[in-house]
Specification:
- The chain has one domain.
- The two termini are about 25 Å apart.
- Helix 2 packs across helix 3.
- It has about 130 residues and is an alpha+beta fold.
- About 45% of the residues lie in helices and about 20% in strands.
- Strands 1-2-4-3 form a 4-stranded mixed β-sheet, sandwiched between helices.
- The longest helix is centred in the C-terminal third of the chain and has 22 residues.
Length: about 130
Amino acid sequence: MKIIKIKDPIYLAEINIFTNCDYSVFKDHIIKKYKVKDWEKVNGRTGEHFTVTANNGFVYNIIWVKTFKWTIVCQTIMAHELLHCATNVLIRVGVDIGDSEGSEALAYYYEFLFRETWNKLKPKKRK
């Protein structure tokens, strides 16, 4: 299981991305780490975005992508979940993504999440 953490200094969001693991392993990790009791069963999906509220009220954005390889299919699944995440964060802080200013904020925020994720996913160059 690969875990990527992105801390957003603007909207104070934390995004945790889990990939390259079966759903059951991911689910067990989330239940243990965040003390989640209610769990929606995911059937046949290859990616998921949702939020978890910690005991202190902090909201974590969680993304799970079953497998990430540098194929177009895997990249579009990750991009899809990142867009859900970006939308959720902006709505939570009160941005109206339906108007022109809000949609521009969404585009910039999505770009930030995309860039941060890709920078953390890309293989390290060997010396």
